[in-house]
Write the structure tokens for this entry.
Amino acid sequence: MVSGYSQIGNLYQALILFEKMREENIKLDVVTWSAVIAGYAQKGCGCEALDIFRRMLVSGSKPNFVTLASLLSGCASIGALIHGKEIHCYAIKCVLNFKESGAGDDLMVQNCLIDMYAKCKNTQISRVMFDSIPLRDRSVATWTVMIGGYAQHGKANDALKLFSQMLLQKTNLEAAPNGFTISCALVACAHLASLRLGKQIHTYVLRNRFESVMLFVSNCLIDMYSKAGDIGAAETVFDNMTHKNTVSWTSLLTGYGMHGRGEQALKTLNEMRRANLVLDGVTFVGILYACSHCGLVDEGIKYFDTMKSEFGVVPGPEHFACMVDLLGRASRLGQAMDLIQSMPMKPTEVVWVALLSACRLHSNVEIGEYAANQLVELQSDNDGSYTLLSNIYANAKQWKDVAKVRTLMKKIGIRKRPGCSWVEGKTGTSTFFVGDRTHPLSQQIFDVLADLIGRIRAIGYIPDTRFALHDVDDEEKSDLLFEHSERLALAYGILITSPGLPIRITKNLRVCGDCHVAITFISKIIENEVILRDSSRFHHFKNGSCSCKGYW
């Protein structure tokens, strides 16, 4: 009965029975211990699962492969790498490769070890373990946990490369991708904004009919298309779904926010309410994000103020961060500070980064310094925080303070991420850095860019040298702006894209303000829509205007 309650997710009843058995000195077998450990692991209570495991060992009961698999899942849920390594050692000594355990049992534990290391952000060990399993013995779960580990921890290129290998391998035909594998690959596509690969995976989904039977695959497709810049395709997937859940609606709502369609996001939320769907914390992050990026300040405040009383959702740090961002973008820095001071929990790093970003936007040195000091106290290793403070000082021409920030970064070993932009072509993706001349078409790219800049200057473009944050003269600053990565990516996109087709660019950082103005002008003189995704949202440039309407 303990096992039964645990399997249906009723951990409370399972624990009552478990403790009653202990009180009455009923012998607990490995199945009972494993059921309780599994119950805790499924709830994300890794510490409690480890505690039960220790009590199990003290009782003299010997764990089996199911026990270890559940325990590793618990370690993965809380990022307990050291405990996970201890379980790994125990598995090598007592469970793996023993005669009484079958090959399938060993593989189950190995798959859980790969998953545990990946979720503890140690994909190198995960990959070593993955590679140690012969190709013929790798199950679909083996491939999926490795692909998922890469996709969820910033190694999307590795995830897609491994997914391609999985499709091409012919050694074990039973290890074909399932819905979970597809979802992991789509997450990787979304991270890279890789529309071309995402469409190929969608074709595979349709051919193998995953979409019609697996709701979460369709939800991942909505998310992928939204983040890859094709919100129309996301709408099509959504409209063609037979069944929809809260995740489906929230994915579309969030997509609208990313693309600057705040009114449509609000309309989607109202439709969710009419459909009597339960709005959760993720839904409110989506709607607050949409309001923040579209200037819908009053609407955002209204939903934040009523999310607990009307919808039963308690605001978390992520909701407060959205509100700080919303108020900060609207130049209400005083209100943002008051909100932070009223938080019922300690402000997290993301809250202070949101405030710091607003100070960069509105050139507020005093509050920016305060936010930066809070981040230092939190021992933040986010290079973006230091860069934001440096940019605030540079904008105020406080060059000595700029130098101090850069010296501090060097002293504590934080390196600024270089800005880079990439653009998809028919056969692959090309990446550009500032002043990049390594591309085979480099000369043509710079020639096209020079021609574009000359033409938009003639119709009113004037470089805004405030965004070249260096202590040099304006002429040199203008030259520095000329070589920004998003401009090089755009010039290359124009070279390889037929007139009338969209040019899709992704940048790893926030788009430069002057580049935003320049691309707006360029969209007047080319026949392509330019869809640019930066670190926070999408910009659709067409016919001399941008979807953000200058509010970003």
Summary: DSSP finds 29 helices and six strands in the chain. The CA atoms of residues 321 and 350 lie 6 Å apart. The longest strand covers residues 420-424. The first helix runs from residue 2 to 7.
